[in-house]
Amino acid sequence: MNTRLLLVGCGKMGSAMLEGWLARGLIASNVFIVEQTETAEKLESKYGINGIPDIDHMREDFIPQVVLFAVKPQVLPDVIEAYKPLVRAETVFLSVAAGKTIDFFASHLGENARIVRAMPNTPAAVSRGMTVMCPTENVSLAQREMCQTLLEAVGMVSWVEDEGLMDAVTGLSGSGPAYIFHLVEAMAHAGVAAGLPADQAMILARQTVVGAGFLLDASDETAATLRENVTSPGGTTAAALDVLMDQKNGLPELMTRAVEAARKRSQELAG
Predict the structure, then answer these.
(1) Are residues 41 and 153 in the same domain?
(2) pTM for this structure?
(3) pLDDT by residue (tens digit) across 57-82?
(4) Do residues 58 and 160 both lie within one domain?
């Protein structure tokens, strides 16, 4: 973790990544963060990194190996041109800005820029995220490894070579945490309908999902096997699963439609 890093934006996602990197031994003096003056000063004081208000304040002798864009997507068009002078073979541009395509970055930084587009999700804030990355062809193996190491600080990492798959990634893992949160809401609602007090129903639903997630993470078994392990033939779980696994109106069909809706919307936003 001795990468020379320029982090552009340090909101919730940026802060989560920064803390993960420093915990893994990233050298603080190798990090420059572009943020508003007051925020930059606080980050500099708290973490010992170099906080600057804009790219013009970066040390001339500092050549970043990774420029990581963690600003809001709507902000990028206004700031990205300032980073074009940093385009060189030893620098890779890594973006976690949702919906911004490789073509977007190439149009502003030039065709020679080495670009990695990443799609993380919100559990990255507690170092349990899922990030999928897509590189341009000129990104070297060493640069891919640097990007992977940086994003592994906040969870798991996977790669796709076809950027067209990033819309499906957005629909599944990018938006996926919201589906789980809504599952908790729906389970609690069902508990109330079955006669439980609302506060107790929410506690039961929430802890059941949290506990199942921990069990899934700790086990080497597949999700299907874990499901089968708690489903006795003719029992209560089997009765519920008969409803949830219905081929026409069950959860698989509903989830397929939901992910597809998110994938199409991702395409629309990118276009």
Answers:
(1) yes
(2) 0.89
(3) 998 899 999 999 999 888 899 999 99
(4) yes
Full strand arrangement of the beta sheet holding 114-119: 50-52, 31-34, 5-8, 66-69, 92-95, 114-119, 129-135, 155-159
Structurally, the chain folds into a number of domains equal to 2
Structure tokens at 240: 């519920």
Domain harbouring 126, CATH code: 3.40.50.720
Band of the pLDDT at 271, cuts 50, 70, 90?
Answer: low
Residue corresponding to tokens 């490894």: 145
β-bridge pairing 50-52 and 66-69 = unpaired
How many residues does this entry show for the chain?
271
Range name among 13-27, 72-86, 88-102, 232-246 with the lowest pLDDT average: 13-27
Considering the domain architecture, whether residues 89 and 126 belong to the same structural domain is answered as yes
Same domain, 257 and 126: no
Least confident of 117-126, 134-143, 180-189: 117-126
Domain limit, last residue, from 107, 140, 165: 165
Indicate whether 26 belongs to any domain: yes
Domain that holds residue 106: 5-165
